[in-house]
């Protein structure tokens, strides 16, 4: 039986200043901070999760903000562009909103679709595309209401140092359907209604360098722990060495690096972000796994305070 992922579970990136990160993704893009925790491997660094109201798989972008970190360089072995889907008819709203916040934008086309392309405050490349698929958001913040709000990921653009190998992994390991190609990209589709369109740049891209403004990894969906174990066996049968299962509190994860250099994760949909906070209180408190709780005072002292706030448009 051919296994197929539903698509993107989450995308994780490096950024710099934590307040500027929150201002961009919550204050300007209108996403909800659904979890404020720490990097379990580096507890002096936040791990922030932004998504829809519930933090549903396919909507979640996560960040490691580190103000002293080096600047990265987008290139091969990375997600080059993170794509968000917005409702059909809402692009003019986003053009006006981004212009009001003085975010430079470029209108581009790719494989028959029009995109609004821009960068966040750290240089991470983002684009918006209108799509019929995907439920409307139920979250409103800072002037972004459901009829215009980001639904979740439209997908991602992958930059590979070896696109032929990456293409093989997308098709034969992850089960994505290769549907078309054009404009220098190969397009794949998964079975989900968000996070479902992956464009692979067809030409090799020179290696990037990790750091602020770059994506660390892209995670694909597994419906539960049992399916994740099947994915682990499948990945191994295709010549990769996946990690043991890692407990990330809100999902379980395995990782492997495909031959084009991109770090792939396979993450479970459950248990989700409401396992340790009420749904209406998500993201309001620093949440720590049990093994870090005895060190809460020291951890909090080492983290820079920030707030989720509406961002005023400068008049002038």
Cα separation of the termini: 61 Å
Using the coordinates shown, work out and report the CATH topology.
Answer: 2,3-Dihydroxybiphenyl 1,2-Dioxygenase, domain 1
Oligomer: single chain
Percent of residues in beta strands: 25-35%
How many helices? 5
CATH class: Alpha Beta
Average of pLDDT: 97
> What is the global morphology?
globular
In N-to-C order, the SSE pattern is EHEEEEHEEEEHEEEEHEEEH
Helix content: 10-25%
Poorly predicted runs of 5 or more residues: none
CATH architecture: Roll
Output the CATH homologous superfamily: 2,3-Dihydroxybiphenyl 1,2-Dioxygenase, domain 1
Rg (CA only)? 19 Å
Largest sheet: 8 strands, mixed
Strand order of the largest sheet: 2-3-4-1-13-16-15-14
Would you report the number of β strands? 16
InterPro entries: Extradiol_RC_dioxygenase (IPR052537), Glyas_Bleomycin-R_OHBP_Dase (IPR029068), Glyas_Fos-R_dOase_dom (IPR004360), VOC_core (IPR037523)
Protein name: Ring-cleaving dioxygenase
GO molecular function: dioxygenase activity
Keywords: Dioxygenase, Oxidoreductase
């Amino acid at each position: 039986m051919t296994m197929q992922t539903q698509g993107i579970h989450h995308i994780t990136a490096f950024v710099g200043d934590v307040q500027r990160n929150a201002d961009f993704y919550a204050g300007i893009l209108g996403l909800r901070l659904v979890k404020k925790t720490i990097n379990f491997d580096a507890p002096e660094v936040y791990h922030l999760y932004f998504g829809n109201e519930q933090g549903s798989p396919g909507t979640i972008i996560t960040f490691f903000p580190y103000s002293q970190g080096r600047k990265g360089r987008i290139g091969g072995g990375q997600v080059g562009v993170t794509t968000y889907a917005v409702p059909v008819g809402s692009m003019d709203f986003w053009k006006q909103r981004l212009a009001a916040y003085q975010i430079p934008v470029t209108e581009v086309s790719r494989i028959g679709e029009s995109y609004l392309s821009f960068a966040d405050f750290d240089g991470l490349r983002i684009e918006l595309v209108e799509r019929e698929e995907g439920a409307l958001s139920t979250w409103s913040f800072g002037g972004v209401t459901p009829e215009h709000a980001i639904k979740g990921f439209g997908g991602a653009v992958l930059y590979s140092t070896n696109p032929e190998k990456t293409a093989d992994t997308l098709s034969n390991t992850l089960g994505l359907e290769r549907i078309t190609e054009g404009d220098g990209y190969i397009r794949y589709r998964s079975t989900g209604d968000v996070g479902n369109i992956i464009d692979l740049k067809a030409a090799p891209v020179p290696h990037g360098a990790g750091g602020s403004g770059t994506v660390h990894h892209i995670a694909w969906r597994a419906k539960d722990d049992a399916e994740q174990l099947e994915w682990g066996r499948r990945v191994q049968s295709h010549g990769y060495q996946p990690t043991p299962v890692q407990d990330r509190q809100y999902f379980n994860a395995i990782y492997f690096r495909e031959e084009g250099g991109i770090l792939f994760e396979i993450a479970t949909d459950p248990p989700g972000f409401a396992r340790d906070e009420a749904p209406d209180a998500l993201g309001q408190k620093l949440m720590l796994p049990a093994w870090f709780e005895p060190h809460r005072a020291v951890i909090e002292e080492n983290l820079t305070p920030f707030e989720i706030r509406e961002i005023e448009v400068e008049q002038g």
